[in-house]
Each structure stands twice: as C-alpha cells, then as structure tokens.
Amino acid sequence: METGIIIQAFLLFALTNFAHSAEITGGNNTVKIPEYIIPCPRSHENINKCLANTFNHLRPYLKTGIEEIDVPSIDPLVIDNMVMENGRGPIKIKALFFNITADGASDYTVTGINADLSKYVIELKLHLPKVEATGKYDVDGNVLLFPIKSKGDFWAVFNDVNGAGRIYGKEFSDEKGVKFMAVEKILVDFRLKKTRFRLKDVFNDGNLIGEAMNQFLNRHSDEIVKEMRPAANAALAKYFKVFLNKAFVKLPMEVWLPDS
C-alpha cells in the first residue's frame, strides 16, 4: 500500500508544470493555464529543479482533488483492490487487498527529479513521513514457515517512507494534432524505517491464534516487507499505469511541457 502512495505521487508529476491562471501564446493559439499548473519549458536551464518545484506546488490541489481533469483526492488515497503474489523465498503467499484507504499521501516532498525529455523518461525521488492504511484482506500461504490462511480487516502504518520511481513515456497526437504523453511502463521501489501491522481475522480476532499471528507479523515486519516489495511494486505499477494514462489524456503537453 505504501508503494501505492509513492506511485500515486507520479500522477502529481504529470500535473506539476502549471502556472497560476496564466496563458501560453504560440502562433494564433492561446493555451490557458490553470492555477495548479506551473509549466516547465523544455528549454528551461534547470528542468529537473523546475519539475521538482512544480511537483511540490501541487500538494494542496491533490489533497482536495482536481475535478476538471478527474483527479481524485490523494488524501485519503482510495484503491479498489490489489493482488500481490510471491512464490519464491521464505514468504510464499497470495494476498488480495481491497477497499483500501490510505491517509498521509498529501504530505509528500519531492526530493529529486532526473528527466530525459528526449526519451520521455522521468526518475523521481520523494519522502513521506507517515502513511496509515486500512481495508480488507484475504491471504493464503506461508510466512517464514508460519502457515497463514486468513481474511478480514487490516490496519498498517508505514513510517519514514523513501520512494524512487521511473516513468517511461511516449508521445502521441490526437486527430487534431494535439500532442499528449502516454505512460508505457512504471518502475518503483521504496524503503521504510518502521512498519506496524494489525489483522482482524473474521474467525480468530482476539483469540490466541489471532494474537499469535499479529505478534508474528510485527516481529518479522522487516523481512515481510523486503520479500513482498517486488510483488507490491508490480501490482501498484499496473494499477497506476492505467490511472496515470486517464489523467494524461486530459493534459496536452503544450500546457505542462511547452516547447519554449
């Protein structure tokens, strides 16, 4: 789930280049720029700094959502469902998480961007102080030889989240010749300082089995996060690729990344 916050933040980048109620004029066309957008011209002398600044500028708008381009609030961040499966190593499980709600995404800070605009590759680093997530789960498998077959409600807190990601994009034009960017692939990774879990099994909540499972998960939280990170990355990347592309089709490149 924490990666979900990280990868949702890449949407922020897509919207991060816009000026306050400004206009871009080129030829006979005038493009109006909404207040949540600070454009970063391709010729900017420090394009990476410009993108990072505009990314952070978006925080208050993303906290409440941007209705005109169908961007929902990221605080809370709501994800319908997510499947994670890991069949190798000491943790072999298949987990379904659904009705996920995560708080804390709007407290992000972009700490660095490295963009190769000729190839539409954007690398991003950010920090989140705390993310708290709740939802439903259904898990079946083994964790460090401890058999787990459980479903119910979950609660998790992720502290001091440092994320890194890479977006691979491509340019395309609509029937009117307006240029847009589409996301072809997303890669993400993250590091956590501290993690806490709580599972409320529909059958074992409050009894010895349920308490033993929760104690075990928290005692081995570092190992669990490490082993499940690739599966979490893949699941979230798939989800947010679709999410980002829905937003990008409403954002012509002349608005957020003008040629001059």
Task: Describe this entry's structure for a reader.
- The protein has a single domain, classed as TULIP domain (Bactericidal permeability-increasing protein, domain 1, Super Roll).
- Helix content is 28%, strand content 43%.
- Strands 3, 4, 5, 6, 7, 8 and 9 form a seven-stranded antiparallel beta sheet that branches. The protein has a two-stranded antiparallel sheet with strand order 1-2.
- About 4% of the residues have low confidence.
- InterPro entries: Haemolymph_juvenile_hormone-bd, To_sf.
- Pfam families: JHBP.
List the helices and strands and how they pair.
Blueprint lengths: L1 H13 L7 E5 L2 E5 L13 H11 L1 H6 L12 E10 L4 E13 L5 E8 L4 E23 L2 E28 L5 E13 L2 E8 L6 H12 L1 H28 L4 H4 L4
Antiparallel strand pairs: 1-2, 3-4, 4-6, 5-6, 6-7, 7-8, 7-9
Helix pairs in contact: 1-5
Pfam families: JHBP
Family: Belongs to the TO family.
GO biological process, one term: circadian rhythm
Number of β-strand runs: 9
Structural class: alpha+beta
Quote the average pLDDT: 82
According to CATH, the fold-level topology is: Bactericidal permeability-increasing protein, domain 1
Spatial gap, N to C terminus = 38 Å
**CATH class division:** Alpha Beta
Count of spatially separate domains: 1
